[in-house]
Amino acid sequence: MASPALNDQQKHEVMTFREQVVAPSMDKIVILDFFAEWCGPCKQLMPVLEKTSRAYAAKGVELVKIDVDKNEFIASQFQVRSIPTVYAVHKGKPVADMTGARTESQIAELIEKLIAQYQVNPVATS
């Protein structure tokens, strides 16, 4: 993803993305929510994503929110054309487009399938 032609902002976006999304996705399913503060549908979907992600956290699911206005380079790499756009990421790669899922039950069903398909192990609780 990174190239020598990246400016400082783009380098920061890539570094942050690697830390917050790629690294955790090596052993988890990361739900990647592209949103904007001004987006009405984003504001409606976000609480549903947050609740569902919390419910599946112990099964290896994590939610990461990416503000498209502050992370234009990352949004462009994912070819985000409208928001909200939601992907599931595992092992550093998008494995499912979850954008069409809007209800808690639809999101939960997709998460269950992804956990089974990618054999994500539950996170050990301390």
UniProtKB/TrEMBL annotation:
Domain of life where this protein originates: Bacteria
Keywords from the named record: Disulfide bond, Electron transport, Redox-active center, Transport
Entry-linked Gene3D superfamilies: Glutaredoxin (3.40.30.10)
UniProt cross-references to Pfam families, sorted A to Z: Thioredoxin
Domain Thioredoxin: 1-116
Record flagged with keyword Oxidoreductase: no
UniProt-listed InterPro entries: Thioredoxin, Thioredoxin-like_sf, Thioredoxin_CS, Thioredoxin_domain
Family the entry assigns: Belongs to the thioredoxin family.
Protein name, UniProt field: Thioredoxin
Organism from which the protein derives: Sphingorhabdus arenilitoris
Gene designation: trxA
